[in-house]
Amino acid sequence: MFLIAVTKNEIAQNFSFGKIEEFDIHSLKTTVITDRFLSEFISEPDGFSVLESPLIGTFDFQNCIFVKISYDRRSNSFYVFKSTISGRPVYYHINQKGEFFCSVP
Q1: How many CA atoms lie within 13 A of 51 on its CB side?
Q2: What are phi and psi of 56, to 5 degrees?
Q3: DSSP 3-state of 13
Q4: What distance in Å separates the CA atoms of residue 75 and residue 35, rounded to the nearest whole number?
Q5: What are the residues facing 73 on neighbouring strands?
Q6: DSSP label at 92?
Q7: Quick one: pLDDT band at residue 32, thresholds 50, 70, 90?
Q8: Range 30-42 burial, b when 16+ CB lie within 10 A, else e
Q9: Residue 23 Cα distances to 30, 51, 79, angstroms
Q10: Alpha-carbon distance 40 to 51, whole Å?
Q11: What's this model's pTM, rounded to 2 decimal places?
């Protein structure tokens, strides 16, 4: 399970579970919450990725990725990858305020 929220206001204080990362992208607050069991936040030179793998906690977890959401600062874009074997739904939404939400339940 993970949640990515790019909002005008901080929302981390609304959550009391999981591993929480919070930082700015331009003038927006980015909150990433991972469950520490199947999902992981990875900081990258030009952005970040959040991925879900049944092998989180092992050295070769990137060999079996079910879902990967990446943000690239250079293009100011999110990329959504979902493996055909995962069977996991990926929900994402951009509201009228331009806020972005993405979750794997």
Answers
A1: 20
A2: -55, 135
A3: helix
A4: 28
A5: none
A6: E
A7: very high
A8: bbbbbbeebbbbe
A9: 5, 18, 19
A10: 6
A11: 0.86
